[in-house]
Amino acid sequence: MKRAGNEEIYYVNQTGGIRDLLRIQMCGITYPDKNYEISRKNSDVACLEYIEKGMGVLRIDGQTFYPEEGDTYLLQVGTTHHYFSDKETPWKKIFINVSGSLPDSLIEGYGLKNIYYFKGLDLSNELQMILALAKENKEDSTEEIICILNRAFLKMREHIKSIDHPFDIAEKMREYLRNHAASKFKMEELCRYISRSESQSIKIFKKAYGITPYAYFLEKKIKLAKDMLINTNLSVKQIADHLNFADEYYFSNIFKQKTGLSPAKYRKGLSDF
Questions:
Q1: How many CB atoms lie within 10 A of CB 107?
Q2: Which pLDDT score, from 0 to 100, does residue 57 have?
Q3: SS3 of 81, please?
Q4: Predicted local distance difference test score (pLDDT) of residue 44
Q5: Strand 56-60 and strand 63-65: pairing?
Q6: Which of 106, 124, 120 is nearest to 50 (CA)?
Q7: Are 258 and 225 in contact (CB under 8 A)?
């Protein structure tokens, strides 16, 4: 065992040609550290990690995820990734780093290529079993670890098969946006809510409804503004504040772009009938 800063690291003894099938680079535990941050370009290792506590950010091949307690992620060989702990609630996680032909075969065979984030998938038992074998320091635990990894990859496959249909996810986003129309638009929170990256979220929503989540959100916000102009005596500034626009001038410009009238003229036009 080796303690390196915020990590407890273990190595597995390996002998013979089986190392060509699976080379176990290291395994261990990452302890909470607000400065924890790792980047790899065109990674030559695959990393399987389970979050025991805390939260953080994972950016991989242009996608962004927000793994937190109870989640698993898989960093695949050949990817460029950057991941780091949340400053307020840093990660504690269990991990194993491997290379060789077996990880690629498992990823391909179980249909996990380019799938990185597994919301709510608990692989703590499997990773703890690997750590226990490493701590035993046996002559060679490779075959036992292969069996455990195969079980872990099967669980990942079953987890992916059980997730919501894309239209169900889109509807979940639409409901969230309707319920938060008076708030500021925060794509990061929407992505966290459905456990998808920004690019995936936009693609799923646009395929279902023909517009982006932000465009839909703005439609709902303008509808709320219309209702308030018709049914209340609130000033334009008060409505802008209530709907979390930057200021009344920005609100007026956006409202006019969407309706063809300024808020004041919209209210006056209705009052003339």
A1: 19
A2: 94
A3: strand
A4: 94
A5: antiparallel
A6: 124
A7: no
Degrees to nearest 5, angle at CA 122 with 23 and 4: 50
From CA 15, how far away is CA 213, in angstroms rounded? 53
Cβ(65)–Cβ(197) below 8 Å: yes
User: Which helix (H) or strand (E) is 93 found in, with range?
Assistant: strand 92-99
Tokens of 232: 């209340």
> Mean pLDDT by 10-residue block, N- to C-terminus, for the chain (273 residues)?
69 82 93 93 96 95 90 95 95 96 92 90 96 90 93 92 75 92 92 83 91 96 94 93 93 94 87 49
Architecture of domain 166-271: Orthogonal Bundle (1.10)
Where, residue-wise, is CATH 2.60.120.10 in the chain? 2-162
- Please state, in angstroms and as integers, the Cα–Cα distance from residue 142 to each residue in 8, 11, 50, 137, following that order: 20, 11, 20, 12
pTM, two decimal places = 0.65
2-162 belongs to which homologous superfamily?
Answer: Jelly Rolls (2.60.120.10)
d(CA 142, CA 238): 66
| Alpha carbons 225 and 23: distance in angstroms, whole number | 60
